Amino acid sequence: MGCVRCPLHQTRTTVVFGAGNADAELMFVGEAPGAHEDKQGLPFVGQAGKLLDKLLSEIGLERREVFVVNVLKCRPPGNRDPHPGEIESCQEYLWRQVDLIEPTVICTLGNFSTKLLRGDPTGITRLHGVPEVRVVGARAVRLYPLFHPAAALYTPRMLETLRADFQRLPEVLMLGPPQQPEPVAAPPPPELEILEPVPELEPESPLAPAEPDPAAQLGLF
What we know:
globular; six-stranded mixed sheet; 6 strands; 9 helices; 221 residues; 34% helix; single chain
């Protein structure tokens, strides 16, 4: 993948497209690759990734059973926040991943992925741990916002909340996939107006030259 849609391609080491089970029922969407991810080309391989693995193991899951992606596929310099233009340039890749993997549940990790997939500016603090049905791209999923593991690493209270929200994940998965939206049918072609054939007119016979007026001829002499 050699995307050059935004300026991040000028500073990245590699594209971090995503990793995991391509048929996963559970997908995690983070924010953007960090330094470790940028070097290895894999998402969540640093300390936040280790915490994610631990939380998954506590509910009987392994990383290889889920699919993990980020909103951005390239690392922002200095691990800064994603810019709106970068998110807009990259979101089509995320919609396509959702279409291909067809997850039942998508866990958004942190503010950026939660706001993008909900299409709403409400922050993660008000939304975490509450599942809802949302259409992401062209697919309906059970969206389950969670605090980002990186934030929970440094705040014990947030870690407790994140762990409690993770414990409810099996219940959300047991709800099964939501009803999918009806596919949008292509508009019918416009009806053509059938015109009655115009009858051909018989060609008019050429006009015979008029006989010269005898009086006019006399005037010539």
